[in-house]
Amino acid sequence: MAQLLSSAVQGYMANSSMIRKMFEQGIQLKKQYGEDKVYDFSLGNPDLPAPKAVVDGLKAFAESAGKPFSFGYTPNAGAPWAREALAKWISADQGVELAAGDVLLSAGAASALNAVLRAVFNPGEELIAFAPYFVEYDFYVANHGGHLTRVMTQKDTFRPDVEALEKAISAKTRAVIVNSPNNPTGVVYTLDEMKAICALLERKSAEVGHPIWLLCDEPYRFLAYDGCEVPSVLPLYRYAVVLSSFSKNMSLPGERIGYAALSPLLEERAELMAAITLTNRILGYVNAPIVGQHIMVAALGSAVDRDVYLRRRDAMADVLTQAGIEFTLPKGAFYFFPKAPGGDDKAFVAALAEERVLGVPGSGFGCPGFFRLAFCVDEKVIRNSAEGFAKARAKFA
Amino acid sequence: MAQLLSSAVQGYMANSSMIRKMFEQGIQLKKQYGEDKVYDFSLGNPDLPAPKAVVDGLKAFAESAGKPFSFGYTPNAGAPWAREALAKWISADQGVELAAGDVLLSAGAASALNAVLRAVFNPGEELIAFAPYFVEYDFYVANHGGHLTRVMTQKDTFRPDVEALEKAISAKTRAVIVNSPNNPTGVVYTLDEMKAICALLERKSAEVGHPIWLLCDEPYRFLAYDGCEVPSVLPLYRYAVVLSSFSKNMSLPGERIGYAALSPLLEERAELMAAITLTNRILGYVNAPIVGQHIMVAALGSAVDRDVYLRRRDAMADVLTQAGIEFTLPKGAFYFFPKAPGGDDKAFVAALAEERVLGVPGSGFGCPGFFRLAFCVDEKVIRNSAEGFAKARAKFA
User: Fold this and answer.
1) What are phi and psi of B269, to 5 degrees?
2) Which of residues 49-108 of A touch B (CB under 8 A)?
3) Which residues of chain B are within 8 Å of residue A271 when distances are taken between CB atoms?
4) β-bridge pairing B357-358 and A258-262
5) Which segments within chain A are labelled E, that is strand?
6) What pLDDT is stored for residue A149 in this prediction?
7) Which single residue of A262, A372, B119, B152 could bond A184 by disulfide (Cβ 3.0 to 4.6 Å)?
């Protein structure tokens, strides 16, 4: 019998086996040595409990959950009261004026992003991402018949290279995606950098004769350190769309609640909103989970304690410095992206795994020679991993 | 400036405006005449409250919701405990033996179906559906580069026409979708009909040299009347996949919790499960909403009271009979699909709307000349609509 799967998915399966093997190795190590003897920095699954307002909101919803339509469909863009509350919160948080009709609730930032891609991409068109980047973007654009082109960030600093971006843009370019605070590098783009990107895309949109969308994936917006500010792109560029979620700031990744927000500068934003409301429906998200919508409204403005993450960042910086591993100090998000001693990221990550320290090779983010560590784990785990890092480092002296 | 949207979505927007206008008309009518003076049979949004076990399950989850990882990501196919419970429940309900690894939890039946289509469709391939059918299927297959071909059911009875199906199958056919109990007709396929379809697809799969999947969309499985049985396809055909949700039996459509279940006859089902676990992730569903997973497990086996729907069906049958409108009595689901007096479904639905009775033209289901009425509304609304039906009918005498 011929193959079960589509040719594309058959290919994905073959390529994804490396990451699956690492994941299985982690489970194996934990079984063999015990959970507390494995230092797992491989996943961005927030360990802090959800803020109290989330739990209170859930309990309040439960009180009325026995009524008709409590769990009913909401409009495809979200319940009107939830969109209203979200628009107010984003407006206050980012210094813009958004109405309920400018925001779409979806099942996480990933689904909001897919809804936008489905609405604007024609087959064969191109999404540009600065590398290193979150590799799910490759799949997301392929879902809609497009493909992803990588533009390297500036050497070692991982800051956006606007000249390189300009060279990469062609008539096939439909959108550019930026992710700040960045996964995996922890870099936060400055206002000047965002303005430079917007000015370029404004000019290039006119040149190619169609909008080049700027998709800003911002789940880590709340998590910036050292007084670093995360500028809002919404007042800067009419073709900007913000995608985000409450997965990180409310520790809610499993409930799948996120959104898309349109720039108030876009005159035709009602048309785009109608389109992403449709694509949010036809992609099978239908509406953001109703319990998630209630929780979000109850807890808007509350967040987990950023200082916990700050202390972890500093602990990880100590551990890496002591081990003699080079890195750029992250200014946001909860990742380090250090240089792999010896230069071979897969080899170094394998050496770390021998010491029961788990990370992810930079190759998995389009950037070999580096590796990613997620520090959304207890500070003790970070401190206790010092010996493992030192031993692995010694092998590449 | 060139158009904002992709050419495909631009086309969808133009075509979807008719249904949007009807929806807006409904809101307008309710504002003008009051909610209780409008008889709205246009939407399949269940009005019965969720069963007590759902609310109890939600409250139990809320008690532990303040712990770390309570709202964390689950594996992409669902939490192991939720898959285990679901597999046991389906096994008992359908007389098959499924393991946890044979079921995938997703954000509703729509997302589970999209995950399967993404995994098996190559661009240009074809999904066949018996008409009338749920027109979202057109979008779902277009999402993955395929297209839908309609095969008409048997005249007036809406029973599957297996000979017509055979003629429609070609080397481009990748899957056939059936929906029983059916939306919009209320027809329930018999065991003999399902066996005939399976035997045909078994033979045709061998002929074309690739699996022709049988996708069974079954959200109304629990809702069959008059002692009518809903056969399970899982023990009949190795390439059968069941898609379903708890939207209807637990009145939970807004929380988005559904699943795919694979046939135990498929030897390579681990490969298919790995693929739909991947596609469930890359399509941006990531994992079924965690609160929904908890609720589902707490309430498996409970359902809303079927007898309420049965009484409504009988009330609607009375109303239509008195008005002199022809129909086939539905044996399942909560829809009537009567003949439009005068033959023009859009004209008759417009005449109904003038009497503040809302339905949907059969054209919206690939079957002009009929119209759909959803009876998931209070029995009083059905009884009180009698005058409206009679008046509209009189205009087409």
Assistant:
1) -70, -20
2) 49-50, 52, 54-55, 58-59, 61-62, 65-74, 107-108
3) 4-5, 13
4) unpaired
5) 39-40, 103-106, 126-131, 147-152, 173-179, 213-217, 240-245, 258-262, 335-336, 357-358, 360-361, 371-374
6) 98
7) A372
- pLDDT recorded at residue A68: 94
Query: Please, how many CA atoms are within 13 Å of residue B146, restricted to the half-sphere of its CB?
Result: 25
pLDDT at B149: 98
Rounded CA gap, A56 and A58, in Å? 5
DSSP letter for B340, please: P
pLDDT digits (tens, 9 = 90+) for B318-377: 999 999 999 999 999 999 999 999 999 999 999 999 999 999 999 999 999 999 999 999
Instruction: Please check the confidence at residue A328 and state whether its pLDDT lies above 90.
Output: yes
Longest dimension (CA), chain B: 67
3-state helix/strand/coil string of B50-114: CCHHHHHHHHHHHHCCCCCCCCCCCCCCCCHHHHHHHHHHHHHHHCCCCCHHHEEEECCHHHHHH
Query: Residue B164 phi/psi, 5° resolution?
Result: -65, -35
The alpha carbon of residue A59 is apart from the nearest alpha carbon of chain B, in Å, by 6
Using CB atoms, pick whichever of A2, A136, A145 lies closest to residue B282. Answer: A136
Asked if A283 lies within 8 A of B279 by C-beta distance, the reply is: no
Tell me: the pLDDT tens digits for B17-39? 556 667 777 888 888 999 889 99
The DSSP string of B8-55 is HHHHHHHHTHHHHHHHHHHHHHHHHH-GGG-EE-S-----SPPPHHHH
Q: Are B291 and A292 in contact (CB under 8 A)?
A: yes
Question: What is the rounded average pLDDT of the residues A41-57?
Answer: 93
Report which residue type is found at B60: A
Q: Is the pLDDT of residue B240 over 80?
A: yes
CB B100 within 8 A of CB B262: no
For residue A181, the model assigns a pLDDT of 98
- Residue B88 is encoded by which pair of tokens? 């046991």
Output the pLDDT for position A35.
86
Q: For the domain bounded by A9-40+305-394, which CATH number is listed? A: 3.90.1150.10
Phi-psi region at B119: left, alpha or beta (left = phi > 0; alpha = psi -120 to 50) = alpha
Residue B207 touches partner A, C-beta closer than 8 Å: no
Query: How far is A104 from A283, CA to CA, in rounded Å?
Result: 14
Task: Answer whether residue B1 shows pLDDT above 90.
Answer: no
Contact A325, A355 (CB under 8 A): no
Respond yes or no on whether ipTM tops 0.85. Answer: yes
Which residue is associated with the tokens 């289901």?
A: B365
Residue B24 has a pLDDT of: 74
- CA of A30, closest CA in chain B: separation in Å? 17
Q: What is the pLDDT averaged over residues A122-129?
A: 97
User: What is the reported pLDDT for A222?
Assistant: 94
- Kindly report the CATH class assigned to B7-50+304-394: alpha beta
> Among residues A286, A328, A353, which one has the least CA distance to residue A71?
A286
**pTM attached to this predicted model:** 0.97
Q: What is the pLDDT of residue A20?
A: 63
A19 pLDDT band, cuts 50/70/90, is low
For A122-147, give the DSSP string. PTT-EEEEEES--THHHHHHHTTT-E
Q: What is residue A215's DSSP assignment?
A: E
A278 and B16: CB-CB below 8 Å? yes
What value does the mean pLDDT take over residues B203-212?
97
Domain boundaries, chain B: 7-50+304-394, 53-299
Å from A43 to nearest chain B CA?
Answer: 10
CB B110 within 8 A of CB B118: no
At B387 the pLDDT is 97
Chain B partners within 8 Å of A7 (Cβ): 122
Estimate the share of chain B in helix, then strand, then coil, as percent rounded to the nearest 5. Answer: 45, 15, 40
Mean pLDDT of B166-191: 98
Q: Do A1 and B210 touch (CB under 8 A)?
A: yes
